[in-house]
Specification:
two-stranded antiparallel ribbon, about 0% strand, disordered C terminus
């Protein structure tokens, strides 16, 4: 792939150009996010990053060599998510409609080519790899669709601070690209690095730093759902198909932070008798802000953890660490997150003012 670097640079620059152009027309199309009680950003911010990233990625993959181009089923599934996400950014759709269209997108991305999580039987059910069990195959496909829809929503839910969803996605794409390169999957390497370049192009407008106190654009639901689904798709691809592959539980390290936060968040909402999709400020990044971290610091902590956990998956793959050990090791980030949430909730209860008693 001698020209890959040039294609990646083109993808980065194309994302930058498209963000600048869409940033100007977004207000006329109504793609603007205004501050609310739940969204504490300053001023009206264009919500065009997702559309720009998708357009840059599709153009970028179309000019690659035919053997490196993304399958049209994958592009089609992403197109559904981006279109519905854009409508949601504009009209605020109901959760049921979003879930239905995400399920449709997952079926398009995985069902058209029989894409399903590999190593499923041996990893979870004790079935020997290569055993032709229709029940295991059907169950693997169902879990595949659920995983794709779940990670789509996980990245959507973690998109609450400037640079957070983009930074977490960039970390996952980077480590997946390195693992795909280690396995010798050339097409996946090209697609992962191309999407990473596009995300970095968007992050130049979305990250906070000392010279820019706030983001210039947001990715919106169109961008966060697209990135979550794309990462899930590549995880599924690296765990299935032609050998060599990486066991599915090992690949979960690259996305364990948004996954655990989403599952924890939904469990706490249902425990409180609320819808798992109801808005609140119980996300991990909100809890970090309540502990006194700045927006940039909270983003840095979560992205830093994503990079660290992704590195564990890559190092474990390269040095042939036991798959079972890496799978059991997933309990570590789960435990860390659970302890932090427990401490934050307990602290909030202790600080909550109590009503005065009557004399």
């Amino acid at each position: 792939m001698p020209n890959l670097a040039a294609h990646l640079l083109n993808g980065f620059l194309l994302a930058v150009v498209l963000v600048v152009w869409m940033q100007r027309i977004a207000p006329r199309l109504g793609f603007v996010d205004h501050p609310t009680a739940r969204k504490a950003h300053e001023g009206a911010v264009p919500v065009c990053g997702g559309l720009a990233m998708f357009a840059a990625y599709v153009i970028g993959t179309c000019v690659l060599e035919p053997s490196l181009q993304a399958p049209w089923s994958f592009i089609g599934g992403l197109a559904i998510l981006v279109a519905v996400g854009a409508v949601d950014d504009r009209l605020n759709l109901r959760p049921l409609w979003r879930l239905m269209t995400q399920g449709l997108a997952a079926l398009v991305m995985t069902g058209l080519d029989g894409h399903a999580i590999g190593n499923f039987g041996s990893a979870f059910l004790g079935v020997q790899e290569g055993a032709a069990d229709p029940l295991v195959s059907a169950l693997a496909f169902c879990v595949t669709v659920l995983f794709l829809v779940g990670l789509t929503n996980a990245f959507n839910m973690i998109d609450g601070l400037d640079g957070l969803a983009g930074g977490a996605a960039a970390s996952a794409l980077f480590w997946l690209a390195l693992m795909a390169s280690f396995l010798g999957h050339g097409a996946a390497v090209a697609q992962l690095f191309l999407l990473l370049a596009v995300v970095l192009g968007f992050l130049t407008f979305n990250m906070r730093h000392r010279w820019r106190p706030r983001a210039l654009v947001f990715m919106g639901d169109a961008g966060s759902t697209m990135l979550g689904a794309a990462i899930a798709y590549f995880i599924i691809g690296l765990s299935s198909g032609a050998q060599p592959t990486i066991p599915f539980p090992v690949l979960l390290w690259v996305c364990i932070v948004p996954m655990v936060d989403t599952l924890s968040l939904m469990a706490r909402r249902m425990h409180a008798g609320r819808s798992p999709f109801s808005p609140d400020r119980w996300h991990l990044h909100h809890l970090l802000l309540e502990r006194g971290l700045t927006h940039a610091a909270a983003t840095g902590v979560i992205v830093g953890l994503s990079i660290l956990f992704g590195a564990i998956a890559y190092v474990g793959t390269v040095f042939a660490v036991s798959d079972q050990l890496l799978a059991i090791g997933l309990l570590l980030p789960v435990a860390i997150h659970s302890l932090f949430v427990w401490a934050a909730v307990r602290r909030a209860r202790l600080l909550r003012p109590t009503a005065p008693t009557r004399m």
